[in-house]
Write a structure and sequence with these properties.
This protein is of the alpha/beta class. It has ten helices and nine strands. The chain has a single domain, classed as 2-enoyl-CoA Hydratase, Chain A, domain 1 (Alpha-Beta Complex). The strands form two sheets. It has a six-stranded mixed sheet with strand order 1-2-3-5-7-9, sandwiched between helices. A three-stranded parallel sheet has the order 4-6-8, covered by helices on one side. A hairpin with a 2-residue loop joins β1 and β2. α1 packs parallel to α3, α3 runs antiparallel to α9 and α5 packs across α9. The radius of gyration is 17 Å and the shape is globular.
Length: 249
């Protein structure tokens, strides 16, 4: 089954997360998304990418019930794939615009912060790195990307509080760059994608590399240790009990 749908309209490709009602991330989905982005990176016709979700969720984050069946070694392997994915998005050579069509939670928020530009729909949708509320740590790369987006003080507030932010609240924090109503989100995302697609591709790639290289180097340097620390906390007694209470369907 395919969990990622890719379409093209001229120079713009749209990548849609489509897995159940909440687009929860599992290993096959991460692998499929990784492959789709690898293909788009070398597609000379594609100049810009819109990254969005189906339904009322961009992504719930990890499919927690599924990962509770994983051994520690298998979970570490998955986390390596997931962190490699968001690191690649963060350094992707073409513009990546996140059109956050609904709830954008935990691992879903990490993927969003990896993008160049984030638009979020108004209304009931929330965005959050809420791991602390159920006793989980975060990952080194997610901290660096968040700090890159919102600065150190706001990153600390977002991670310590684990709060669920509306689009308007997220905009004030710098977590999203634009707020759009549901009926114009796609159109607004296309406008941003088209504007960035018109930039000289080599110049864009070079400037993006210079802007993001310091954060990317820290992500790569610190990630392995952070994954092991994440797993130790994930499998701790209290966090494990909290995770078992999470229902996503």
């Amino acid at each position: 089954m395919s969990f990622i749908h890719v379409s093209k309209d001229g120079e713009i490709a749209t990548v849609i997360l489509s897995r159940g009602k909440v687009n929860a991330l599992n290993e096959p989905m991460v692998e499929e998304l990784t492959k789709a982005l690898e293909d788009l990176a070398i597609d000379n016709e594609v100049k810009s990418i819109i990254f969005t979700g189906s339904g009322k969720f961009f992504s719930f984050g990890f499919d927690v019930p599924e990962f509770l069946r994983y051994s520690k070694s298998d979970f570490i392997s998955y986390l390596e794939k997931f962190t490699n994915l968001y690191t690649n998005i963060f350094q992707f050579p073409k513009p990546v615009i996140a059109a956050l069509n609904g709830h954008t939670i935990a691992g879903g928020c990490m993927l969003a912060t990896a993008c160049d530009f984030r638009l979020m729909v108004t209304g009931k949708a929330k965005i959050s790195l809420n791991e602390i509320t159920f006793g989980s740590a975060v990952l080194a790369g997610s901290v660096e990307m968040l700090r890159y987006c919102v600065g150190s003080r706001n990153a600390q507030s977002i991670l310590y509080n684990g709060a669920m932010y509306s689009a308007e609240e997220a905009f004030q924090l710098g977590l999203v760059d634009q707020v759009s109503s549901e009926n114009v989100l796609t159109e607004d995302a296309k406008k941003v994608a088209q504007e960035l697609a018109q930039k000289d591709s080599l110049a864009f790639r070079g400037i993006k590399h210079l802007l993001r290289k310091p954060a990317a180097e820290q992500m790569i340097k610190r990630e392995k240790h952070a994954i092991f620390e994440f797993v130790d906390i994930w499998y701790s007694e209290q966090t494990w009990q909290n995770l078992k209470a999470i229902k996503i369907y």
